[in-house]
UniProtKB/TrEMBL annotation:
Transmembrane segments: none
The protein's name in its UniProt record: MerR family transcriptional regulator
PANTHER family, per the entry: HTH MERR-TYPE DOMAIN-CONTAINING PROTEIN (PTHR30204:SF93), REDOX-CYCLING DRUG-SENSING TRANSCRIPTIONAL ACTIVATOR SOXR (PTHR30204)
Keywords on record: DNA-binding
InterPro entries: DNA-bd_dom_put_sf, MerR-type_HTH_dom, MerR_fam, Methyltransf_11, SAM-dependent_MTases_sf
Domain HTH merR-type: 4-73
Length: 371
């Protein structure tokens, strides 16, 4: 294995120009620290690793000054950079998926001869696209009191609470000293005035000392993390108590618990294809699991919320507030909506799901892990 790489070889491997590498050297961003046998400057393995981080951040749109601050952070190692990069790439993938869905909606509208105004075109494809999606989140995603009571009871007598992957702040207990952690700027900007202070960080690399909090909580967010088990272990490190609302994929036939995924959106299983087992997540924090029933009139518009109100899934703003629909892609979404609409119109849905009519709550796989 090589112990150094020439400037030319690195430029070739990284698909950048030698001039770019020289510029990074001149501004002190990445300086070759090794020497070839002939005395020419070359890159060590550590130099290559730093260059990889620089180029990755650059290709994600960061300016040189921002990149210098990111790679110069002495508290962040290579693994932390990889996790941060993975999270940024996933966020951009979600933005791209959302944009594709917006384009598909406009194509469908134009195919039907519907007029698409300039304002709608700009909202679909311009800077407001992601804000519009986030806006749907705040209009349909809010604290459901019955689920909140179960979460807050699990927090016990904790006074200081860290909310990891906090989003816009749902389920943060008002009677505790809460600190929030949220990596998405879009979500942070939508936190209401007066909400808990929010730190820009990822679950996998929490910027807090061991046992800094009485409790750490995470609500319907673990599936968004780059490395869920690492994030859970971080929660365990910084807090004496851990409470996590998540999803159970251990139970045989879990995909069939909910009629929406069973009959209309089987792609949901693929969305959670790499999701850790419930047992694995419980082991990561040394916790136990208990079911969290979803009320029929659930105020929080999470993916399963409308299990007794199927017509809600035909509403675009309802679907936009759940990442599942973006993850499965526009083709699967449109097929599911079309099939559900047909079945609601024909009465087939009501016939197939008649057993739900008398239920006040349903176990659809939500689980509360407590340690």
């Amino acid at each position: 294995m090589e112990d150094h790489w020439t400037v030319g070889r690195v430029a070739e491997l990284a698909d950048v120009s030698v001039r770019t590498l020289h510029h990074y050297d001149e501004v002190g961003l990445v300086r070759p620290s090794a020497r070839t046998a002939a005395g020419y400057r070359a890159y060590s393995a550590g130099d290559v690793e730093r260059l990889r981080e620089v180029l990755a951040y650059r290709r994600l749109g960061f300016g040189l000054r921002e990149v210098a601050e990111l790679v110069g952070d002495s508290s962040t190692d290579a693994i932390a950079h990889l996790r941060r990069l993975r999270g940024l790439v996933l966020e951009r993938r979600d933005r791209a998926d959302a944009m594709v869905a917006a384009i598909d909606r406009e194509l469908e509208a134009r195919a039907k001869g519907l007029k698409v105004t300039p304002e709608e075109q700009l909202e679909m494809l311009g800077a407001r696209l992601y804000d519009a999606i986030g806006g749907a989140y705040t209009t349909t995603r809010r604290t459901e009191p019955r689920i909140a009571a179960q979460i807050w009871d699990a927090l016990g007598d904790a006074r200081t609470v860290l909310n990891v992957g906090a989003g816009t702040g749902s389920y943060e207990p008002a009677d505790r000293d809460v600190t929030a952690v949220e990596p998405s700027a879009v979500m942070r900007e939508q936190r209401p005035a007066g909400s808990a202070p929010c730190v820009a960080a990822a679950a996998e690399n929490l910027p807090f000392e061991d046992h800094s909090f009485d409790a750490a909580m995470a609500v319907s967010t673990v599936h968004h993390w780059g490395d869920p088990l690492a994030g859970l272990r971080e929660m365990r490190r910084v807090a004496r108590r851990v409470v996590v609302l998540t999803f159970d994929t251990d139970e045989p036939g879990w995909q069939d618990r909910f009629w929406l995924t069973r009959d209309y959106l089987p792609e949901f299983a693929t969305v959670l294809g790499e999701f850790p087992s419930l047992a694995g997540m419980a082991d990561a924090i040394g916790g136990r699991a208990e079911p969290v029933p979803v009320p029929w009139d659930c105020a929080d518009g999470l993916f399963e919320a409308y299990w007794r109100r199927p017509g809600a899934y035909l509403e675009d703003h309802v679907r936009r507030a759940s990442s599942v629909w973006t993850r499965v892609g526009p083709e699967a979404e449109q097929r599911a909506v079309r099939s559900l609409s047909d079945d609601l119109g024909s009465g087939r849905w009501a016939e197939r799901n008649s057993d739900l009519a008398g239920l006040d709550a349903a176990d659809l796989g939500l689980r509360l892990l407590t340690a």
